[in-house]
Amino acid sequence: MTSQRTLNRLFTLHSWAGIVTGLLMFIVCFSGAVVVFKNEIDLWANPSLAQLPRSQKPASLDTVLAQLHTRYPSATVETIALPDAVNPSYFAFVRERGAPANTRTKVALRSDTGTVVGPVDSQLGQYLRMLHVFLFFGPRWIVGFLGVAMLVLIATGIVIHRKILAELFTQRWGRSFRVVMSDLHKSAGIWGLGFHILIAATGAWMGLAPLFEQGYQYITTPAAMTASKPARKAEASEPVPMQSLDALYATAQQAVPGLEARYVSLRRWGSSTAEVGFTGNLRDHLASTARVDIHAATGVPKKVHDPRTAGFWSLVNGLMEPLHFGDFGGLALKWLYFFLGMTPAFLSISGTLIWLDARQQRRREAEATQATAGGIAAAG
Fold first, then answer.
1. Could you give the 3-state DSSP secondary structure of residue 134?
2. Strand order in the sheet with 116-119
3. 201-235 pLDDT, tens per residue?
C-alpha cells in the first residue's frame, strides 16, 4: 500500500515532469501523430506526382541512374528511393556541383520508364518527420529523453490513479473546469495506456540507443584504434567502370534473402572506392533495418546486416521503427496510430491547464485567507 506521503511526492514529480516537458512533448506527439501519413502528405502536397502511373514492373535501377546522369550531368546522385505501396514513383536526391554540403534536390522519376519528371515542389511530409525526430535541428537524443519523460509520466500516473477501472468511465461534466479536465486527462491516459507505453518505449530506444552504443564503443575501443585514420589517397582522375546497379541489388538480395530495398545510397560513384548501400525491409518480417554495403567496382559485399541473424538486440532495434510509426499495417493502422497518437498531445495540454488552474485556485484561496485575516485584525 503506497503511503500518502509517497503519493504526494509522485504527484509532484508527475506534475513538474509534465510542465517542464509540456511544450516539447506536445510538438513531438502532435507531429508524430501526423507524420504516420508522411508519404500521403507528400503526395497531397505534390498533386502532380499522384497522377503519375504506377508500374507493376518498375524501370530498372540502371535506367533510373542513367536518366539522372543525363538530366543532371554535373550533379552527384546520392540516394534513390524505390516506389512503394503509397508512392508510385522513384525519387532521387542529387547534389549540384558547388551546392552547400547540406543542400540536396529531391527529384521525381516515372516508375514505368525512369524518366525524370523534375524537382519535387514540396517536402512537407519530410519536414514533419524532421520536426518529430530531430525537432528540426536538435540531436535525436533530445526526443529520446522525451520518451523517457513520457515513461516517467506514465509510471507515476498509474501509481497516483490507482482506481484505473473506475476512472475509465468517470466524466463529471457538470463540475468545475479543473474537475472536467482532470477526468478527461485521466480517462484519455488510461484508454491509450498500452499505446502510450509502446510509443514512449520505442521513441526512447531510437533516440538514446545510438548514444549509449557510441559511448560503449568509445569506452571499449583501444586508444590506438581511435587515433585518426590516415587520409584517403586521392582518387584517380580517370573514371572506373561500375558494376550494374541491378546486378548489385541482386547480390544484396542473395546476401540477405527477402531484402526489399527502400533506399539505394551511392558513395563516391565512379571512383575506385565507390560503394552502394541497399537499405530496406524484409519480406514477411517486421524488421526494417536490413542493409548490405557493396563495393561498386568489384561487386563484392563489404558489410551485411540481417537483423534476423545479427543477435537479439539487433532484432529488437530493427522492430522499433515499424512499431513506432505504424507503417506495416496499411491505411487502417495509420488512422489508429493517428487518433491514439493525438492523446499524448492532448494530455500535455490538459495537464498544463490543470496545473495552471490549480495554481490560480491556490492564489485565490491565499488572497481570501489574507483578506479574512486582515478583516479580523481590523475588527480587533
1. helix
2. 116-119, 105-109, 90-95, 76-81, 259-267, 275-282, 285-295, 301-305
3. 999 999 998 888 788 777 877 765 555 555 555 44
